[in-house]
Amino acid sequence: MRVSGFRKCCQEVRILIDRQPVNVLFSLLLWVFILGCAAGYIKDYTPKSPEEEAIKTALIAFETGWNMQEEKAILALLDEDFVVWVWNGSTRRLVFTKGTFGFRLWITFVRWRYLSLGMPEIWIKGTEATAHVAMSVDGRGTRSTFRLVNRGGTWLILEWEF
Q: Model confidence at 98, in pLDDT bands (50, 70, 90)?
């Protein structure tokens, strides 16, 4: 009797699990790590237009300013109407405005030291843009949304939601 390739593969996996559960667990973790790395970083993103290039530059500047803990650099990237929203279950809560965010930025740096932005999905409509970005804060992954506005040829962050 001939065994199909899929069945043979399943039989081999079962044998591995029975004999070497630690090796199987290690292999699965390795694959998760490799797939996570394959997602990429914002620096690897290839923009489709000059507007996307400018948005990418603004987000990279935000990430760099955050990781270097440069308050003035971050505040310069924020629109005057900037707000931070946080989702808690099914409700969205306003956490900071630009004034309170700037005032509490140093405390926030102490709590969230390292920020890494992944590949963005960017939509532009006139002078407004939305960027959905995979984000890692101190190694904890989440998804965030940046809403940007073009003021006098400069893309500024209007909202940050996560």
A: confident
Residues 6+ apart with CB under 8 A from 129: 51, 55, 122, 123, 147, 148, 149, 150, 155
Q: What is the CATH number of the domain that holds 54?
A: 3.10.450.50
152 lies in which domain range? 42-161
The residues near 44 (Cβ < 8 Å, ≥ 6 apart) are: 119
Amino acid of residue 112: W
The model's pTM: 0.71
Number of domains in the chain: 2
80 in the same domain as 16: no
- Residue corresponding to tokens 């006098």: 152
